[in-house]
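The material for today's practical consists of a large collection of protein records. There is nothing in a record beyond a sequence line and a structure line. Backbone structure tokens are a discrete shorthand for how the chain folds in space. Nothing more is needed to start thinking about how sequence determines fold. As an example, a complete record with its sequence and its structure tokens follows.
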Amino acid sequence: MASTADLERFAKAAEKTAAVHREIQANIDAKEKSAAKKNGGESGAKEGAKEKAMQAGARDYPELPMPKQHFKKPGIEADLELAPMVDAPHYLGSEKLKDKVAIITGGDSGIGRGVAVLYAREGADVVIVYLNEHEDARETQRLVEKEGRRCLAIAGDVSDPEFCRAVVARTLEEFGRLDVLVNNAAFQEHVQDFEDLTEQHFDRTLKTNLYGYFHMAKASVPHLKPGSAIVMTGSVTGLMGNAQLLDYSMTKGGIHAFVRSLATHLVPKGIRVNAVAPGPVWTPLNPADRSAEALTKFVGSVPTKRPAQPEEIAPAFVFLAAPSCSSYITGEVLPIIGGYSGG
């Protein structure tokens, strides 16, 4: 059982990890500023903003250009000029996860927050795990409780296996069960040149994105019963690669392989394992990676010509967690990438 002192120690360790994130980011930012001066400055976001984005949802979503913002890592959702849309007012719950308990890493903001809201709307109590974004975590907790469910927020670094075990122990102590694990926490920082990808940067990406997923799964599996589910956040970069996100793409491809392998391994236990592989999504992860100029057009060549909002991605996590929806689905990677360019 994790004591209060243990949880405080994990939270302090998370602050140190966040400082490492900012150090890696500062190094890349400095190199890009130097390169921009040599090249006469960054060009504005002109392409893409003129073309109409596809709107096929229950309500319209923001189109390019996105606001020019750049955050220090890990990025705070409350600071975004354009708030990510997570409340999904047209999504009606139907008790697909009634009285289940879910752990969501990276649950304070972005996709994690969107998933927490819909899981609560489907009847689940939620534990959100986050690094040090305390303000965002409190807001997610408020949104979950607004749906009439309980929410526990725990700060720490998922690359620490002791912390992961403590999260599961605290969840069992508080709720008495664990039914769904959502591995979602991630570290992302681009590089323009391969030479700029330092060992510290590479190591941090792998520690968060692969070790973190492994540690949380290993701590959770002994407590999952038949009918339980693990859902992991992959990425289009793990399917198609990305020239500026070499390490991140590698980890996302690794997550996809981990999902397929772990799913096969856990079939005898009746535990399903799947992944959602999103394309560009409007979350704090992006302004905490890209420059303000690059952020305005970060969707690249996506046919829909706009980023997804978290509430457009979250229903897939409900689908893959709910036994009533996906009892025969395991080992799958579901891309939600805004279409294929064909070129």
User: Anything to note?
Assistant: DSSP finds ten helices and seven strands in the chain. The longest strand covers residues 272-278. The domain at 4-28+101-223+277-312 is CATH 3.40.50.720 (Rossmann fold). The radius of gyration is 19 Å.
